[in-house]
Amino acid sequence: MPRLFAISVAALLFVAIPTILVAQFGKFFFGSPAVPEVTVQQLQKLNAKQPEELYKINEQYLILDVRAPEEYQVSMIPGAITQEQFEKNQAEYRNRTIIVYCTIGYRSEKYAKKLIADGFIAQNFKGSILDWCRAGMPLVTMQGEQTNRVHTYSSEYKVPPNYTAVY
User: Which SUPFAM superfamilies does the annotation name (predicted)?
Assistant: First the structure.
């Protein structure tokens, strides 16, 4: 009888301990829930009724560049603001959907998770600026002038022939 009791307790612990650990530390080990994503095609359609306004900041959404200064100083998606600009005026953007981008989408996903945790509505631009270039979309400098240069973070990432990679 004591042996049967010991086996039952061991089996219970075998099931209970992992369940408790996952409940307590699941986010740490398995990550938090997925961040909503937006594709380049969806981003292009946001203002399809007013194409001339496609790249301008509007009342519904904001395009947020979370790349490092040496990256966004090469080029940006038209209408985007930098993370530094956003953080200085966060309250101004509280009721907008924040579409976050970087080079490929990794850093932007991390920042979008932070924004969601802080109560913002945020989406990660899947593929980020590299997908933007693959779709043949325009880029601008910090001064708003059109450019074909894009910071790719490293030589590992390729851009279409009509763009110039900078790293």
Answer: Rhodanese/Cell cycle control phosphatase
Cα distances from 114 to residues 3, 16, 48, 100, 117, in angstroms, run 50, 31, 29, 11, 5
Query: Domain residues of the chain, as ranges?
Result: 1-31, 37-166
User: What is the CATH superfamily name and number for domain 37-166?
Assistant: Rhodanese-like domain (3.40.250.10)
Cα gap 60→17, rounded to integer Å: 46
* CA-based torsion, 110, 111, 115, 121: positive or negative: negative
3-class SS of residue 106: helix
Say how far residue 155 (Cα) sits from the centre of its chain: 21
Residue listed under structure tokens 């985007």: 80
pTM: 0.77
pLDDT per residue of the chain (167 residues) written in tens, 0 to 9:
677 666 655 554 555 455 555 445 544 555 555 899 999 999 888 755 454 555 555 678 999 999 999 999 999 999 999 999 999 999 999 999 999 999 999 999 999 999 999 999 999 999 999 999 999 999 999 999 999 999 998 899 999 999 999 99
Alpha helices per DSSP H over the chain: 2-30, 40-45, 69-72, 83-88, 106-117, 128-134
- Please, are residues 41 and 54 in contact by the beta-carbon 8 Å criterion? no
